[in-house]
């Protein structure tokens, strides 16, 4: 059922495009109501507009806290057009129907992000009348169109022109769903911020609000469904991809797919692992991920060298993996991939040259993602468990030489320190228990996800041996402490000369003694990198 827009109320904080929208409504014969700054904007542009205080016959009061909370406003929005009694009530009180409500809300998020924001500032930027109008209009979508997003202005005007000033029921229902989502997110944002404030801040509203507690007492989440996926981790599981409405820059959710098949659940998970890992390096770097674990990581003088070194770590596992670079991919990189007949599921990089794009276009199924370079991380990492949700801050400890404490008689030389820092950055992205052999800016053997650390060490040695890589003179990173000396014995026998680990075991002295007995250099970082 189509509904003609005869009277529209516009009251927006975000004034992007609202003037053009108002002109379009007026051109279709709609009378315009408005408030405050929006009304001034429309009037100064020469549009006929009635200020809401004049319309309601009651002025704004309480410093603008009460503007639209009036029966003449909400009666005109909420009256059911299909009920004669409702329409008779409007007529009896001389309340014209309001057919369209265009509102977006006070900028609470922008307010709380300001340095030195006070609780009083935040409270004053909690919109009351706006959400009330939006909810009223959305509830009565059968007779009212509710508009919250400036991105919708152009399509709504096009529909109005096509339908002689009317909007369809389907459009109004879609707008109502969007409005309820908008107000729910707004309330969730306020609740998350307020419940994270330190106890007692409410007693001094003029004081600068302290840094919020890390975890709100009540956590409200909102995500936009980006797409329905073909299936989940396995074909019998259904799945979807949801995107944060304000994704952090640099996350895989902000990427742009340039070509290839639709991304799967596993593609997205593995691409995220590869992209987050490769971004930690400043030198040209390549990361190859298979089943959530890096199977080859390297840095080089340029991307082609980094790729060659990463591929050599484990050519078998690299087949069908996810490939990520931290700089622009050119034709030379793609030609090296082609020369090795390297089948890749997803290729991720911050940019691709035109020549590289042309070569990649021949691989129609290859998913190519252009991802932003930024290294920003979300405030929380979230994981569902049965009946609940785990939340933690990201593991963003970036190891530096100054963080190392030498605990053995032998001290590592400059080259060994450089390789240890590289290895420890890689170990951070390997499933626990993680053991990573490295040398010359590349991984040599990776042991991941084992129940015992000594088994991870043995597997890393086996992987290196299978790739024909010599572990003599290599360094080893362990994501957590060695609980016994057995792992140290295995890596020393394989030819490693230096070890980087957090330390903190009850048997640290036993482990250090083993390192000294083998003539190894060992450093402690004091920071563990479990990845479950």
The class by helix and strand makeup works out as: alpha/beta
Q: Which regions are unreliable across 5 or more consecutive residues at pLDDT < 50?
A: 209-213
What is the approximate shape? elongated
Share in β-strands? 15-25%
Overall pLDDT metric: 90
Number of domains: 3
Fraction of helical residues: 25-40%
Under CATH, the homologous superfamily of the largest domain reads Methylglyoxal synthase-like domain
Distance between the termini: 53 Å
Round the Cα radius of gyration to an integer and report it. Answer: 30 Å
**CATH architecture heading of the largest domain:** 3-Layer(aba) Sandwich
List the strand order in the largest sheet. Answer: 10-15-14-13-11-12
Major beta-sheet overview: 6 strands, mixed
How many β-strands, per DSSP? 23
């Amino acid at each position: 059922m189509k509904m003609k827009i005869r009277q529209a109320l516009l009251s927006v904080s975000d004034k992007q495009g609202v003037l053009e929208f108002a002109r379009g409504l007026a051109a279709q014969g709609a009378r315009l109501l408005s408030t405050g700054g929006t009304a001034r904007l429309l009037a100064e542009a020469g549009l006929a507009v009635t200020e809401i205080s004049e319309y309601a016959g009651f002025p704004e009061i309480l410093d603008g806290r009460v503007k639209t909370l009036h029966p003449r406003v909400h009666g005109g929005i909420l009256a059911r057009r299909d009920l004669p009694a409702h329409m008779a009530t409007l007529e009896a009180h001389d309340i014209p129907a309001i057919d369209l409500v265009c509102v977006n809300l006070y900028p609470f998020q922008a307010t709380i992000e300001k340095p030195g924001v006070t609780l009083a500032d935040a409270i004053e930027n909690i919109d009351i009348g706006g959400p009330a109008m939006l909810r009223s209009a959305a509830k009565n979508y059968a007779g009212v169109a509710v508009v919250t997003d400036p991105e919708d202005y152009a399509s709504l005007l096009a529909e109005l022109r096509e339908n002689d000033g009317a909007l369809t029921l389907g459009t109004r229902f879609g707008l109502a769903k969007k409005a309820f989502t908008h107000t729910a997110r707004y309330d969730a944002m306020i609740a998350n911020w307020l419940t994270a404030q330190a106890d007692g801040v409410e007693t001094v509203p003029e004081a600068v609000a302290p840094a919020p507690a890390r975890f709100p007492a009540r956590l409200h989440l909102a995500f936009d469904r980006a797409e329905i996926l073909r299936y989940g981790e396995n074909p019998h599981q259904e799945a979807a991809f949801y995107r944060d409405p304000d994704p952090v820059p640099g996350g895989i959710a902000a990427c742009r797919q340039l070509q290839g098949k639709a991304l799967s659940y596993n593609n997205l998970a593995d691409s995220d692992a590869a992209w987050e890992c490769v971004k930690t390096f400043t030198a040209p770097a390549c990361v190859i991920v298979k089943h959530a674990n890096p199977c080859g990581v390297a840095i080089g003088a340029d991307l082609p060298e980094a790729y060659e070194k990463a591929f050599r770590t484990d050519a078998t596992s690299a087949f069908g993996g996810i490939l990520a670079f931290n700089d622009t991919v050119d034709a030379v990189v793609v030609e090296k991939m082609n020369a090795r007949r390297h089948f890749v599921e997803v290729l991720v990089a911050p940019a691709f040259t035109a020549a590289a794009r042309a070569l990649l276009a021949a691989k129609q199924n290859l998913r190519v993602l252009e991802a932003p370079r930024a290294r920003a991380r979300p405030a929380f990492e979230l994981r569902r468990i049965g009946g609940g949700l785990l939340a933690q801050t990201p593991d963003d400890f970036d190891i530096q030489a100054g963080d190392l404490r030498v605990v053995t008689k032998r001290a590592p030389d400059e080259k060994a320190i450089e390789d240890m820092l590289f290895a420890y950055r890689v170990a951070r992205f390997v499933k626990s228990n993680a053991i990573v052999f490295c040398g010359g800016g590349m991984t040599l053997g990776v042991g991941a996800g084992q129940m015992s650390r000594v088994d991870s060490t043995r597997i890393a040695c086996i992987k290196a041996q299978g790739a024909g890589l010599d572990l003599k003179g290599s360094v080893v990173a362990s994501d957590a402490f060695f609980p016994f000396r057995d792992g140290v014995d295995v890596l020393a026998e394989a030819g490693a000369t230096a070890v980087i680990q957090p330390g903190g075991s009850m048997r640290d002295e036993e482990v250090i003694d083993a390192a000294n007995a083998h003539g190894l250099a060992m450093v402690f970082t004091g920071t563990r990198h479990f990845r479950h």
